[in-house]
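dude i think i finally got it to work??
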Amino acid sequence: MFMRKIFTFIILCLSISCFAKKQLDIPAPIYADSHYCGSCDPEIVWNPETKQWMIFYTARRPALGQSSACGTPIGVCISNDMKNWKFEGYCKFDGEGGKPDSEHTFWAPGCIVKDGVIHMFVTYKEDTTPPWGTGGCIMHYTAPVNDYVNGWKRVDVVVDEDRCLDASIIRLPSGIYRMYYVSGTEYMQNNKKMIRYAESKDLYTWEMKGNVQGDVNNFKLHSLPYQEAVYVFLYRNRFYMLTDPHVGLATYSSDDGVNWKYHGQILKAGTSDRTLDWSQGRHPSVYVNKKNEAFIFYHVEPFRKGKEAKFLEKHQRYTFLQMARLVCGKEGINVIR
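look at this
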């Protein structure tokens, strides 16, 4: 009876959100995975061929309890207006997968389009051992822009640090590509994972550059408990970084994308009254349009209520995608919801 009430509430909230639009006419939430309602780690990408936006996301499986975050495929949804999203399917890699239950574990796709090809740098784990899968690396896959569900082919392992995760890819003004990611265990300092980066001229051959500099990895300065889900974007010739320390999103800015200044946190719990948006924002990505308007996409776990993952009930694992407007400046980032 309790679970039936929860499902009824979710359906009602999603229905209401289509009509109860607030600032900027953005629905809340914008999307929920059509199978397990476990959409998280969104990566928004513009498809120049179809003229649509795509979101690639980790498709968690909340109804499976401790197995919710392993055996996860990568889901894809598309939109013509960046507000109304349609489920397209689950990615097939080398012809395998395409189902809501994967034989391997995929997390947090970082994507970029170049010359008609989508490059995905995704956290990959060979097995599906609960709760997180074993080990892990960052794997490079490619697909044609017109076959972004079934056309993925493996290229190579890019980062082979044990338990590394969460790649973010950006093209620098110089034409060089830079990847930011959360380090493996061998690069931890004081039991904290570091934010590191690598560079490439062609997206295929990468040079590891080490830890980013400045405030990001200075845990004494910002007092954050942990950082994952690093995401970097350019706005008006300035670099901005977001990370997920599980207490809202940490924000940084930089002149060169290597040396970073900390600006505090956004999307903390209890800072919004939008539908299913009252919990903290998690694992973001950002899209900047031709008008220099910036929009953030993130997932929320509105029924979690602060519990550790291993203690969550099934309904507390449901995740939804949200969208909001960003205002960026040298003093940091603000959110308009």
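The CA atoms of residues 150 and 207 lie 30 Å apart.
im so relieved honestly
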